[in-house]
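User: What would this chain look like folded?
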Amino acid sequence: MSTVDVEACLEDLENRIDPEVDDRLQSDWLEFTEGRFKGDIFSPKRARKSAPGLEWPGVTVNRAQVDFDAMVIQQYGACSRQIANGAGGLMTVRTNYGTGIMPSLFGAELFIMDEELGTLQTTRPLGGDATVAAAGRGVPDFEAGLGSKVFEAGRRFAEIAQTYPKIGKYVHIYHPDMQGPMDICEMLWGSSLFVDLIDRPEEVHRVLGVLTETYLAFMKRWDETVGASDRDWSAHWGMMQPGRIMIRTDSGMNLSPEMYDEFIRPYDQRLFKELGGGAVHFCGRGSHYIESCCGMAGMRAINLSQPHLNDMETIYRHTVDKGIKLLGFSREHADKALAEGRDLNGCVHCH
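Assistant: Here's the prediction, encoded as structure tokens.
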């Protein structure tokens, strides 16, 4: 993929961005984020569509992992499609290297999916003893594993933002998929972690402590690479969220509320405290620990992918009833709640 292709595509995107449209869209999102939205379900749309002036090249997920130009086309191409179809998300890009970014820093081997699957790479676990040993060496070199690619792509994105003024203003660079301390720990340790939480708790805590330090240091370098924003909101997956980070807590579905409080909440809470708060994403069931999760200082939004696996009244009671947003929520479940007379308090976003 030539540099000319990339430049032509970026020029096309720059020329099609309409400040009036995106200023209005951002204003709508701010109204929702700041608690001023008065409707039932927040589901914004762009005021106008704009078709591309050229055909953007197709890019496979695997190609983007090894070619920085392909990564640019993949990420900014999604912004082009948003403008073309009138989607109501903010334009966002990230250095899209998958869930294995943080584990790879500690030496976890990459597991590359077959190209035709169109799925991001992940990593193979090290095992418990090797994870304890790796964490014992402290915060790793950020040039190890996928780290060098993440920061090189981040520099490319920052240069694009400087070169193209409208892209720089309206396309938001969000932090890479850094997961959360417990999710990283599980990816490194493997499934035996869930036994070792009981058999080796002190070692697990030492690992979680190092992973939290690594997350904080990684974010500091990320901010230095792409430029830290002084806003009290950020954009993630095209959604505006209050705060700066979105922590993944997929491992929480496997733990009791008591174990969540011991092994997840303290480390997530530290990230929120030191990085300006934000949101939590989880797959699977989270209604058993949602009260504790939403009790963290700085916890301001939830993104859950499978509401049918949750006691949604419990979720609503500890989120929307407390002003905590539900982002990217299921329209089916939101409509069902409203039909049953459930007040969502203007705190639910659906695509």
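The chain is about 50% helix and 10% strand. If you want, I can go into more detail on any region.
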